[in-house]
Amino acid sequence: MDYVNAFWVGGLICALVQILMEKTKMLPGRIMVLLVCLGAVLGAVQIYQPFVEYAGAGASVPLLGFGNLLWKGVREAVDENGFLGIFMGGFKASAVGISGALVSGYIASLIFQPKMKK
Q1: Which of 9, 11, 43, 74 could form an S-S bond across to 48 if both were Cys, CB 3.0 to 4.6 Å?
Q2: In whole angstroms, how far apart are CA 99 and each of 57, 79, 95, 109?
Q3: What is the DSSP letter of 56?
Q4: Is residue 118 part of a domain?
């Protein structure tokens, strides 16, 4: 049942974002920033964590989950280091995911030989 919940919740998030992209004139970059900020806000008001516990990867993998991850990292770093935790918490919490994305992107560029747009 965990897989089913992850599938339908992740699909619902993606469908809602697709509707937002189709029905508004917002650029994709702004929508991505909106999703990360919304995930951080939902994490701050403690709504997103029960959602993640229910849906698992369906809620933690989309950009909403990344915003929630940043919020959790900042909150933990502020508890440990005070004011300076605001600046280092997000980096500490997301370093593994960002590093994985960079390495994967680099390997893909070596395999598929991308071309620059003209």
Answers
A1: 43
A2: 19, 25, 6, 15
A3: T
A4: no
Residue 78 covered by a domain: yes
Q: At what angle do helices 48-55 and 28-44 cross, to 10 degrees?
A: 100
Structure tokens of 85? Answer: 């935790």
pLDDT at 60: 84
Q: Domain residues for 94? A: 2-112
- pTM, 2 dp: 0.76
Number of domains in the chain: 1
> DSSP class of residue 114?
-
Does residue 62 belong to any structural domain of this protein?
Answer: yes
Closest residue by Cα to residue 9 from 33, 31, 17: 17
Q: Which residues contact 67 (CB under 8 A, 6 or more apart)?
A: 35, 36, 37, 38, 39, 40, 41, 42, 43
72, part of any domain: yes
